[in-house]
Amino acid sequence: xxxxxxxxxxxxxxxxxxxxxxxxxxxxxxxxxxxxxxxxxxxxxxxxxxxxxxxxxxxxxxxxxxxxxxxxxxxxxxxxxxxxxxxxxxxxxxxxxxxxxxxxxxxxxxxxxxxxxxxxxxxxxxxxxxxxxxxxxxxxxxxxxxxxxxxxxxxxxxxxxxxxxxxxxxxxxxxxxxxxxxxxxxxxxxxxxxxxxxxxxxxxxxxxxxxxxxxxxxxxxxxxxxxxxxxxxxxxxxxxxxxxxxxxxxxxxxxxxxxxxxxxxxxxxxxxxxxxxxxxxxxxxxxxxxxxxxxxxxxxxxxxxxxxxxxxxxxxxxxxxxxxxxxxxxxxxxxxxxxxxxxxxxxxxxxxxxxxx
Amino acid sequence: xxxxxxxxxxxxxxxxxxxxxxxxxxxxxxxxxxxxxxxxxxxxxxxxxxxxxxxxxxxxxxxxxxxxxxxxxxxxxxxxxxxxxxxxxxxxxxxxxxxxxxxxxxxxxxxxxxxxxxxxxxxxxxxxxxxxxxxxxxxxxxxxxxxxxxxxxxxxxxxxxxxxxxxxxxxxxxxxxxxxxxxxxxxxxxxxxxxxxxxxxxxxxxxxxxxxxxxxxxxxxxxxxxxxxxxxxxxxxxxxxxxxxxxxxxxxxxxxxxxxxxxxxxxxxxxxxxxxxxxxxxxxxxxxxxxxxxxxxxxxxxxxxxxxxxxxxxxxxxxxxxxxxxxxxxxxxxxxxxxxxxxxxxxxxxxxxxxxx
Lengths: 357, 357
Fold this sequence. Notes:
The structure is a homodimer. The first copy, chain A, has helices at residues 15-23, 43-60, 74-86, 99-111, 223-228, 238-253, 256-276, 302-314, 339-356; strands at 4-5, 66-71, 91-96, 113-119, 142-146, 148-149, 154-155, 165-169, 186-190, 201-206, 294-297, 317-318, 329-332.
């Protein structure tokens, strides 16, 4: 039986995409080779990379003066790549709204004067700081944010106005809602939540900003080098890119990001409404900043949380355990989570509440 | 029809492994999830990572005081990781025997006093320099070699005796022959040739050497951090690791590296013998240093090379084009290339010679 997989990442993928990949797993595009075996220089494959870039540009309305890259190492590698490509004045501001935002900030400090200019740590990251009153410093190379916080279940609903280049880690929400790329100098995202199997990371970067990586930047972390080589400077993570393209084709067919966002808002709305109308379950995020991707919640006790998780797994509702930093449960309901999955979760929550309240 | 795929990387994988992966593509280990969807923290998956490490230790006789890591970014990322983890005195020697050895050397120069102490560039990298007379310098942090040269088709048949730590890029020959890991401080290898789909890189590093990465080393490039986290510091390239484990299980079942090496020697012997007995085809590598993984060869003219490649593709013998730096043809006959594939290539070569000599 196929599980409803609420994992925060790697995450559920569209069943029809998985079936398509399975069907042609031994013979990619009539080449007589698996897509896992084919040379990245083979035209049948390099066309896939080009199509991936084209589809991302189209779906996210990425202007021509931005590079669109497929790189390796996850967002965690980009935490270093950001300062190594951008920190020319050795100074950057970070807004810390969760675990990964903090990790990015810590990495920034390795390379220069990185400052945390706003944080929601005082209330366990349950909100996004007021963006009107952030004490941004002068002369910084960039301001870094994490637009959706996987562990704590918050998201930015608007983005800060900054003099410096705005850089965003969008790993847990890329392609889930429309964004204005022009507001950002750099956007990056591990693909293993909304887009593809783990192993590929998307970087969208304004070309004028990335022409002078710092002298100590590893060649592989230089966005300029990746851009000049069409993401084929070395052997890319071919299978993950291929899967991303199958998913992007589906997103396009289904009406693009606007249509996907409507479904995401609907799914999240169902779950939050249910939680808010229950006196048994709690989500402690400030409503305005609730993520539509990651929904953490708890029952009245840690014992009941544990019992909830055990029962859920038996019903085929899996990977609902919250991150150890917050405990309880977390339902990650990315693009590929069907409405039926959310409804099945709510049905189980109802039943569990009835049996345990 | 399944092609015989002679690509230098990504490369052919064992058909039975591909079939197994295809069979369980929608339901990994009875979880109701694809292995491309499952959380890397799920026990069903973390066991795969542990099994991969265990199998590598067993097959390569890796001592307990070495870390065995699955990382991202390919050997090209390790070109930077090597100095960033090891270059405490800011000084390293490189032996340059080909394109990737040279790239590693160039990357080393970013971080300190890297010197090329021996090279075979004078004869288009068709040999390995005499290792008895290399002017290694005193006080270096390491000596770097590339043990098999994919583009030029050479390999080390013995390894240099060095006072400094010996570091080897074994990307194009890992698991193809027995090696004494104790001779090396660090071995690294992109997996996309002998082991798995592109996206995962193996690092084998003596733990005592990797405890103090340089202060500017990105966290993700710190071998110590990867070791402390069992290769799960961040989301790993799960699918490539899973495929690597299927391949490693097969290697073990088939008798380990000694048995695999015998087949590899046999396959390479068939091809080199045929070339040496032909007056039509030429391989210009010094015999002693011929790679058993990558066999470059030419016909008497560039026009005939082109015609050879076209005809070969029609016969299902694909990705035989030589690297642009050397032209002609190159047959990469990694572990997963069946003996029948080499025989089919030789049969075609015979026919082509007869028709065109």
